[in-house]
Amino acid sequence: MHYDVLIIGGGPGGTTAAKELAAGGKRVAIIEDKHWGGTCLNCGCIPTKMLLGATAPLAMLRAQERLRTMKGGIDIDYKALQARVGRFIKGSSQTLAKALTAAGITLYQGYGVIAGKGHVAIRSEAGEEMLTADDIILSCGSSSASFPGLAPDGAAVLDSTGILNLPEVPESLIIVGAGAIGLELGDFFGLMGTKVTIVEAAPHIAPTEDNDIAKELDRTLGKAGRTCIAGVMAKSLVTKDGQAELTLGDGRVLTASKALVAVGRTPNTAGLGCEKAGCALKRRGFVEVDEHLLAAEGVYAIGDVNGLTLLAHAADHQGAYVARRILGQEHGAYVPGPVPSCIYGSTEVMRVGQTAKALLAAGKAVSVSQASLTLNPIAQAAGASGGFVKVVWDGDVIAGIAAVGHGVSHLVTVAQLLMVGGYVPEKLHEVMFGHPTLDEILPAAIRAPRVSVTEA
Predict the structure, then answer these.
(1) Closest Cα partner for 165 from 43, 38, 76?
(2) What is the CATH classification number for the domain harbouring 298?
(3) Which end of the chain is more exposed for a tag (fewer CB within 10 A), N or C?
(4) Per residue in 151-174, pLDDT tens?
């Protein structure tokens, strides 16, 4: 069977590309080996946010209790919550598959393997089928990474998928890795009553962020009863006598009911055979792409598999670009603009664009302006006014906006639009910000005095 475009991977990037290509008149097929919607919908972004949504009232109650304005209790039915999440994911995945089919896209369930230029083999329980295409899009995503001595064993040591399927809330939990996955799941289980210890090899938690953001996050996690250990390598993590046992590089040994390995992601390129189509792999297995997201003649790689930005919305954005390029509507290089990212939970982190740390490493003259959330009435109303918004300046240009505090993920799109529009202080009069809103903290941070920084 021949198609104009074959897509390997039915996650956000692949499905977005497919819909735009089909709408443009192309004959399109998608190959998916696990579940429609990919990791994001089935075992990543969506289930974790549903869990965090359920525990959000607990965090709000505790904030008001500290102010002595409220008291009481909230009981969460963990099994009922898991069942709700499962129903939602299953229904959303089925709805997505039906929508793709209704758009005229052919769906194949199986493992797609590159068999040569323009050739893809589908391997499934029914056998093997060969398809051909003018263009191929690799959108096969990534999986939980692990390191020697830190591999999930399915017993007490789990990956992010395994921990979502725990039949009961563990009494204690060790999390190795303080990125978004580890911090978000730590927030959920911590609010559910689990004793949580987070271990990070980098100098501070949230290692992709600036130190001041991480320091404030660490402070609020400590107040919430979480233990964060940073700057120490995890040497080994095993199940021993039914418990998770973590040995640190400094000799300390920690034990807990369960452990989560959240040390990043690895691309799903093992066995893909993309080299047969002329693609090259980088050291960690990500597919090498050029400025047009081309991996080889007639082969594009989008989303996690190219390693540029491991976020679902980045895959979606890249998929739309590649679709326009194949349709002849796009000719320039791929330009993502300021990329938004968030860490969710009772205390959140938001960033759009560059960190001060990255700019300083590039030799830029960096300054920072910021505003405290104590100045914001909405943060005060929530009883959670800790944290701040910071603006990172490269000369007189806004290079990044970041925030840490309650609900700051809601600022991410406004921050992105302010950056794209170049809303420096002299231009902010063009925008009327509603009052009272959390958004008001952004112009306050942009207008605040700038301080030159030499480290971040």
Answers:
(1) 43
(2) 3.50.50.60
(3) N
(4) 999 999 999 999 999 999 999 999
